[in-house]
């Protein structure tokens, strides 16, 4: 419902094919995949590609520099490095695969079960996972290596066990998120068994994150594996990169190349996996990276006509707020999207203006632009913005922001998400009074207390000491109104101030806003979708649709004679006066049809 | 708050007992008969039987466990099976070395990660942010010992800015100590730095999109003050990563110490595991898990302070 | 067309229902002795504000939350604690439409898959399911090619139509509608409500219609129960509750919702202020 966040949202991934085809459009993704496939092929077909027997010792080759027959030279025992590297890739890949598989088998079912069933299952598995995570794996690996005669597969299974918490956490959080979705409840009501729900709905959601996690895990497992081999643990008979690095390490002062080859192989393989994982993660994640930031207040928008909509009824010098031909554009991955297309409106001191429209009409974007509080990827251009009878559109940002909290107060829509959860209510009310209005600590606190009393909170000291999660939504909205009015603004901007509230609380909050508006003689701009709210509190109204003002007028005029059919439809849709079911059914029967019962 | 603290302490203690008990049985089951490793292949069966008798290995495993546990809770981890020195003496000699590089790496990761994280969080599409993103992808996955080898090659061998190997105790020479731990700490810290910075950058992106940030701006607060609010909200994730990293660093230190030839717990763990010296291995496990429990406990306290909602869960 | 053999017993009979939620050590009584009945082909509204327990009642009927005490009977049989296979058998008669048009459809499945799921779960063959799905889409006035598309391609109102089709596809006798239009724009709301009414006339299904909006309830419900803090404070015919309520809470609820007419709203506000001074207003 939050309009401000919606323009950047992308459609969820709907098919696996789409994901892969999008993956193959990323250059980094292609490069990483190609490198990784190369390593896989090298490992699989090592016996075909390797020019020499990797274990054949030729004393003439000892620490030899590269030559045409031995492209990478020889190691300190006189073996061909290239051949050992190719065979080593097998060991590395096998180890990583064993570790990933173990991690998936241990982590994913436990995580899905914990997330889906919750309760005791969740507590037990989570405790185990946390426990495993707080054990330094290397020590346990060394204990295991000490006993098993360093069996490589057993070691990599142990590595996998230490990777399981990663899989566990990601599957659990995904399953938990899905569990809360109504479509799971709908599936239960539809008669699906738990097994079937887990299979169709939950595993599907876990699928992509597990693949991404595997890319990461494989890289880390390769690191741990080579680390162990470097320490001389693991099967010595098969060539492996860790042992080769150890060999190079011991001669690095004299023959650094011997160390460089296996290090490069390991580094490149791990990097390829990491880039594959991060490319996939980028594609799957819903969060969009911010588009490159462009100049604010850039040139006139060229792609749209600059024709303005709406009307200005007060002289600019006497207005509390005046917006002239406002355009708002969002940069999205698919090009720019205009959400406000030439809006004009104004409000006089002491007047209440309603901006009405359905979601996506651009009403919130209009007021955010007036306050210069658009999200980072939004841009606003206007012929003029006036506040308190002065043109502020061309002021530098800092000067414009100095008007916030002093001349303008802002009341948001969603009370709970508009208080900082980390600070007490008192801190959030006192901080602006001290920082912006330069009151002393004691005075600021006194003022905050006063304001809370004014907005109808009877125990201000308790509320001041509370954190936001300890108070109710209606209380939080009162706190936010108190904060908006505390700075004695001449203009109060309220963005859907009652939409998130229960209807009885809504009436209280509207009453409070009306009282404060009259008491302080503020201009009030109220954004809403509810014509009932408009009828209750507004003097004038601007109706918005698709980023344009389609109609403005006094409240009496708009309700009595809506000029635009859309306005008439919206007013009619405010259900309160519609025929009741009994009346509808009566009309239906009268028309000669029978009601099916 | 007191209840919260007590619960965390209790849960840490339980974890410690469970992990060390599991390690005890794992070590005994995995190693089986340690006398082969201790005496070498040339030992006669009679010699080995004598040693088994001497070490008390013929008793039932549960009895051995109880014996070990009842001493361990009093801080007595027994004596090494190799040289019959008290385990606690050997470990306490080496812990300062390991702690030097792990704590230095953690501090480095916290400070540099914080600076880079804030810088990129404030400019999420700047050049630094892009570089960080690439670096974080690669550096997180690359193992510390690999980075160590590269650093040694570059800075110790090619440029000769730092000693390649060796440890100078702090009591001996402060500057020597610092020089000897610089490369190992950096090698350990690099991955953690990028992870913390990336975590903070993501946190900034997420928190910046939240409604209350807009409301704070609308109250007229300066950019600096708003940033402090954002930072506090974004920090729990980064702090959690820091704590997980600490565990990883303890493990990673083992191989890094061997590369830089530092006399920390790394080489002790390696030699103890090669000959199956169970008392030393168990002592090492207890010590590292204690560190982890302490760090996690501190993390919980800090998280509870940063976001009071956490305390009430 | 299914009808009750015995028309004296209501289709759904909820008696003295109590539901407790456990939060850590404390328990919270979400429902405190609530009784509701719904006849065949009837729409009963459940009105209240957040925390009044209206959604909990719907969940309890659907078996999505534990019942502490009381009795729920459906078509004469006790379903209070129906679980497992017994609960799954009820799926043929008892369905749901949720509030959130975005969360109530799995974004990774096609609409065809979503709609066929209740049928295939009950063992219906593929071809038959496909036919039933096409019929249902027609019922909710959506084009036939909807089946191959994904939920993300539809608007909120269209998704709600899909959710209604899913609820209807097994031809149930009762649908629990949990705030099914409150997330929609006003103009879309009206169309979806009319769809609910049409479907009821065509199929004779019963609705338990949970809503916070007296205007919506007035249009669609035959009878209305008003919930407040876990209790049912008033039950009666639609016309009485939405025009002349007896209970002071219902009156306050009615007067608190602003009407889209400046003169009448001024009048209504005066009455509301009068009532508020008389009864006192607890700060929420």
UniProtKB/TrEMBL annotation, chain A:
Record carries keyword Glycoprotein: no
CC terms in the record's Gene Ontology section: plasma membrane
ABC transmembrane type-1 domain sequence ranges: 89-281
Gene3D superfamilies in UniProt: MetI-like (1.10.3720.10), P-loop containing nucleotide triphosphate hydrolases (3.40.50.300)
Any Gene Ontology biological process: transmembrane transport
Similarity comment text for this entry: Belongs to the binding-protein-dependent transport system permease family. Belongs to the ABC transporter superfamily.
Descriptive protein name: ABC-type dipeptide/oligopeptide/nickel transport system ATPase component/ABC-type dipeptide/oligopeptide/nickel transport system permease subunit
Organism: Streptomyces zagrosensis
TrEMBL record, chain B:
A family per Pfam: BPD_transp_1
Primary location group: membrane
GO biological process, one term: transmembrane transport
InterPro entries: BPD_transp_1_N, MetI-like, MetI-like_sf
Compartments, as annotated in UniProt: Cell membrane
Residue intervals of the ABC transmembrane type-1 domain: 95-299
GO cellular component terms, A-Z: plasma membrane
Keywords: Cell membrane, Membrane, Transmembrane, Transmembrane helix, Transport
Similarity annotation: Belongs to the binding-protein-dependent transport system permease family.
Protein name: Peptide/nickel transport system permease protein
Protein species of origin: Streptomyces zagrosensis
Lineage: Bacteria, Bacillati, Actinomycetota, Actinomycetes, Kitasatosporales
UniProtKB/TrEMBL annotation, chain C:
Ranges of residues in domain ABC transporter: 12-254
CDD domains, per database record: ABC_NikE_OppD_transporters (cd03257)
SMART domains to which the protein is assigned, alphabetical: AAA
Listed GO biological process terms: transmembrane transport
Highest taxon in the source lineage: Bacteria
UniProt cross-references to Gene3D superfamilies, sorted A to Z: P-loop containing nucleotide triphosphate hydrolases
MF annotations from Gene Ontology: ATP binding; ATP hydrolysis activity
Key words of the record: ATP-binding, Nucleotide-binding, Transport
Annotated family: Belongs to the ABC transporter superfamily.
Protein name: ABC-type glutathione transport system ATPase component
Species this chain originates from: Streptomyces zagrosensis
Source lineage: Bacteria, Bacillati, Actinomycetota, Actinomycetes, Kitasatosporales
């Amino acid at each position: 419902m939050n309009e401000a966040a919606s323009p950047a949202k992308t459609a969820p991934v709907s098919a696996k094919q789409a994901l892969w085809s999008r993956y193959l459009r990323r250059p980094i993704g292609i490069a990483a995949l190609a490198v990784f496939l190369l390593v896989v092929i090298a490992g699989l077909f090592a016996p075909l590609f390797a020019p020499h027997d990797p274990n054949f010792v030729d004393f003439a080759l000892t620490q030899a520099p590269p030559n045409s027959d031995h492209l990478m030279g020889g190691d300190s025992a006189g073996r061909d490095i290239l051949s050992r590297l190719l065979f080593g890739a097998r060991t590395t890949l096998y180890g990583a695969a064993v570790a990933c598989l173990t991690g998936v088998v241990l982590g994913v079912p436990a995580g899905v079960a914990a997330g889906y069933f919750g309760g005791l299952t969740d507590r037990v598995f989570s405790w185990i996972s946390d426990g495993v995570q707080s054990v330094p794996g290397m020590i346990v690996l060394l204990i295991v290596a000490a006993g098993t005669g360093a069996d490589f597969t057993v070691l990599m299974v142990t590595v996998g066990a230490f990777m399981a918490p990663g899989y566990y956490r990601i599957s659990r959080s995904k399953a938990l998120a899905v569990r809360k979705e109504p479509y799971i409840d709908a599936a239960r009501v539809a008669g699906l068994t738990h097994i079937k729900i887990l299979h169709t709905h939950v595993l599907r959601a876990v699928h992509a994150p597990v693949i991404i996690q595997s890319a990461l895990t494989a890289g880390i497992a390769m690191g741990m594996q080579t680390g162990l081999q470097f320490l001389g643990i693991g099967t010595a008979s098969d060539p492996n990169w860790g042992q080769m690095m150890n060999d190079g390490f011991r001669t690095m002062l004299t023959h650094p190349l011997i160390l460089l080859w296996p290090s490069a192989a390991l580094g490149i393989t791990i990097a390829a996996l990491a880039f594959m994982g991060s490319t996939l993660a980028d594609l799957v994640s819903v969060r969009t990276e911010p588009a490159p930031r462009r100049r604010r207040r850039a040139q006139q928008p060229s792609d749209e006509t600059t024709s303005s909509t709406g009307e200005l009824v007060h002289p600019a010098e006497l207005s509390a707020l005046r917006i002239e031909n406002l355009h708002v554009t969002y940069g999205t991955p698919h090009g720019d999207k205009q959400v406000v297309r030439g809006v004009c409106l104004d409000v006089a001191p002491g007047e209440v203006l309603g901006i009405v429209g359905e979601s996506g009409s651009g009403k919130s974007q209009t007021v955010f632009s007036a306050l210069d509080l658009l999200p980072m990827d939004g841009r606003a251009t206007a012929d003029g913005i006036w506040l308190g009878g002065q043109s502020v559109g061309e002021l530098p940002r800092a000067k414009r922001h100095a008007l916030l909290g002093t001349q303008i107060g802002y009341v948001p829509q969603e009370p709970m998400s508009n208080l900082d959860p980390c600070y007490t209510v008192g801190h959030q009310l006192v901080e602006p009074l001290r920082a912006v209005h330069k009151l002393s600590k004691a005075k600021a606190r006194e003022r905050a207390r006063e304001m809370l009393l004014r907005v109808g909170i009877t125990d201000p000291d308790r509320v001041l000491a509370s954190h936001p999660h300890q108070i109710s939504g209606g209380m939080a909205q009162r706190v936010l109104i108190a904060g908006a009015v505390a700075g004695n603004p001449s203009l109060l901007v309220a963005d859907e101030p009652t939409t998130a509230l229960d209807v009885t609380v809504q009436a209280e909050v509207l009453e409070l806003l009306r009282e404060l508006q009259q008491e302080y003689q503020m201009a009030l701009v109220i954004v809403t979708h509810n014509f009932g709210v408009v009828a209750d509190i507004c003097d004038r109204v601007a109706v918005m649709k698709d980023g344009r003002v389609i109609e403005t007028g006094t409240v009496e005029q708009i309700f009595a004679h809506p000029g635009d059919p859309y306005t008439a439809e919206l007013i009619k849709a405010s259900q309160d006066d519609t025929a009741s079911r009994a009346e509808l059914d009566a009309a239906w029967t009268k028309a000669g049809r029978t009601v099916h019962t | 708050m007191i209840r919260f603290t007590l619960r965390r302490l209790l849960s840490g203690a339980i974890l410690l007992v469970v992990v060390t008990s599991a390690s005890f049985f794992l070590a005994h089951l995995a190693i089986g008969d340690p006398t082969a490793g201790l005496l070498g292949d040339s030992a006669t069966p009679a010699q080995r039987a004598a040693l088994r008798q001497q070490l008390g290995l013929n008793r039932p495993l549960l009895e051995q466990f109880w014996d070990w546990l009842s001493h361990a809770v009093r801080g007595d981890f027994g004596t090494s099976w190799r040289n019959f020195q008290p385990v606690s003496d050997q470990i306490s000699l080496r812990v300062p070395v390991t702690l030097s590089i792990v704590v230095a790496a953690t501090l480095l990761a916290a400070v540099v990660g914080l600076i880079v994280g804030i810088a990129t969080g404030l400019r999420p599409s700047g050049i630094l942010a892009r570089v960080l993103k690439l670096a974080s992808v690669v550096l997180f996955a690359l193992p510390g010992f690999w980075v160590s080898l590269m650093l040694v090659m570059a800075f110790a061998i090619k440029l000769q800015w730092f000693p390649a190997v060796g440890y100078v105790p702090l009591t001996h020479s402060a500057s020597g100590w610092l020089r000897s731990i610089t490369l190992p700490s950096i090698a350990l810290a690099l991955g953690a730095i990028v992870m913390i910075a990336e975590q903070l950058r993501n946190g900034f992106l997420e928190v910046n999109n939240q409604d209350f940030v807009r409301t704070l701006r609308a109250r007229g607060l300066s950019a600096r003050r708003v940033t402090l609010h954002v930072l506090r909200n974004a920090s729990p994730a980064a702090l959690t990563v820091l704590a997980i990293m600490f565990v990883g660093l303890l493990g990673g230190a083992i191989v890094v110490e061997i590369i830089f030839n530092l006399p920390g717990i790394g080489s002790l763990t390696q030699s103890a595991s090669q000959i199956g010296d169970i008392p030393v291995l168990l002592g090492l496990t207890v010590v590292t898990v204690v560190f982890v429990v302490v760090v996690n406990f501190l993390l919980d306290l800090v998280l509870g302070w940063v976001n009071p909602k956490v305390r009430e869960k | 067309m299914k009808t009750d053999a015995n028309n004296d017993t209501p289709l759904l009979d909820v008696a003295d229902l109590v539901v407790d939620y456990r939060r850590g050590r404390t328990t919270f009584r979400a429902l405190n002795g609530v009784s509701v009945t719904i006849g065949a082909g009837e729409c009963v509204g459940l009105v209240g504000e957040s925390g009044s327990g209206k959604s909990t009642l719907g969940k309890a009927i659907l078996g999505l939350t534990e019942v502490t005490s009381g009795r729920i009977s459906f078509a004469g049989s006790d379903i209070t604690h129906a679980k497992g296979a017994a609960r799954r058998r009820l799926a043929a008669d008892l369905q749901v439409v949720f509030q959130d048009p975005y969360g109530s459809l799995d974004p990774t499945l096609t609409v065809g898959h979503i709609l066929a799921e209740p049928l295939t779960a009950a063992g219906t063959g593929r071809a038959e399911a496909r036919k039933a799905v096409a019929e249902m889409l027609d019922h909710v006035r959506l084009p036939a090619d909807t089946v191959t598309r994904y939920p993300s391609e539809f608007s909120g109102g269209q998704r709600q139509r899909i959710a209604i089709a899913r609820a209807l596809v097994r031809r149930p006798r009762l649908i629990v509608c949990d705030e099914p239009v409150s997330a929609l724009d006003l103009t879309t709301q009206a169309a979806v409500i009319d769809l609910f009414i049409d479907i009821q006339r065509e199929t004779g299904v019963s609705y338990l219609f949970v809503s916070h909006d007296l205007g919506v309830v007035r249009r669609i419900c035959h009878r209305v129960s008003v919930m407040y803090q876990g209790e049912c404070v008033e039950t009666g015919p639609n016309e009485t509750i939405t025009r002349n309520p007896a209970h002071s809470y219902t009156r306050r609820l009615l007067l608190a919702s602003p009407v889209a007419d400046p003169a009448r709203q001024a009048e209504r506000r005066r009455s509301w202020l009068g009532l508020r001074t008389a009864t006192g207003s607890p700060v929420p």
